[in-house]
Design brief:
Helix content: 55-70%
Strand content: under 5%
Number of strands: 0
Order of helices and strands: HHHHHH
Largest sheet: none
Length: 182
């Protein structure tokens, strides 16, 4: 049993690293509307909400460390907002939602994504205000349109991912209980 869990964790680790490197090397080089597609954050939300909370946190730490190496901002601008967003969506999921459905995935991922971008905005501007960093994010049309494009692409990506896993796996299928039948 332990060997199976170690192998499963290793496979998720490889998937997260490959996805993060795909984000950094390929998606960032695409033209303007398509380079706002963020694959890492929705995948981490999916791991956290649909598979396992601990796996989502470990995957977030691994991918955030790789993303931090290529970020021009102060260390922690990806790691801290991402971890806090994952904790928030898991907390809201455990309080308000009863099942792992497409609806709960899309709503909580949207909340987590908005929280992630808001915390990232605050984090970067606090360091700019105190003179630690010379990079600033302003709420102009370019930044907000980029956030909305990322949210739009993330919702589509999560919907497709959930649908594919529902088709090819028995884990996310609906089960109806009919009383009186044997």
């Amino acid at each position: 049993m332990l060997k199976k869990n170690v192998i499963k964790f290793f496979l998720y680790f490889i998937l997260v690293i490959i996805t993060t490197l795909f984000q950094l090397s390929f998606i960032e080089a695409l033209p303007v509307p398509w380079n706002h597609f963020n694959v890492v954050v929705p995948l981490l939300f999916f791991f956290t909400l649909m598979i396992n909370y601990r796996l989502g946190l470990w995957s977030a730490m691994i991918s955030a460390m790789v993303l931090e190496m290529y970020s021009p901002l102060v260390f922690g601008n990806i790691l801290l907002p991402l971890i806090f967003s994952l904790i928030l969506i898991n907390f809201v999921f455990s309080l308000l939602f009863t099942n792992r459905s497409l609806f709960s995935l899309l709503i909580l991922s949207s909340v987590g994504f908005v929280c992630f971008n808001f915390l990232n905005f605050i984090y970067v501007n606090i360091f700019y205000y105190f003179g630690i960093s010379n990079l600033e994010i302003s709420l102009t049309g370019g930044y907000l349109s980029g956030v909305f494009l990322q949210l739009f692409f993330s919702i589509i990506f999560l919907g497709v991912l959930f649908t594919l896993l529902r088709i090819f796996s028995k884990r996310f299928r609906s089960v109806f209980l009919v009383s009186g039948r044997r």
